[in-house]
Amino acid sequence: MAEGSTGGTRAGGEAQGDSFTKREKANEDFYIRQQEKEKYIYTTLEAAKLGTDIVSGLMALKAKLGEQQRHLEELSKHIDEMAKESGGEKN
After folding, report:
1. Are 77 and 89 spatial neighbours (Cβ–Cβ below 8 Å)?
2. Taking CA 32 as the corner, what is the angle to CA 26 and CA 48, rounded to the nearest 5 degrees?
3. Residue-by-residue pLDDT tens, the chain, 91 positions
């Protein structure tokens, strides 16, 4: 078998720098950059989605807290009315 026919290092290796080797290296680098770009985009989108979910969850909790505060105020007024009716508080 001739040298390089089994996929081994070509005569001179990458240091030789023929056009095929340069083109192959450029294609590999491009592929790697594309993969890294896709990972970055995916990660960014997932983080944005998580951030949106957190914000909407906090907004829902804030609304629920407001409802509960209004309910507590109503209960407090009701207790005050009952105390006045029973003569427990004199004003």
Report:
1. no
2. 140
3. 555 556 666 555 555 568 888 999 999 999 999 999 999 999 988 888 888 888 888 999 999 999 999 999 999 999 999 988 887 555 5
Residues with Cβ within 8 Å of residue 14, at least 6 apart in sequence: 21, 25
Single pTM value for the model: 0.45
CA 55, distance to chain mean position in Å, is: 12
58-73 burial, b if ≥16 CB within 10 A, otherwise e?
Answer: eeeeeeeeeeeeeeee
Question: Side chain identity at 67, as an amino acid letter?
Answer: E
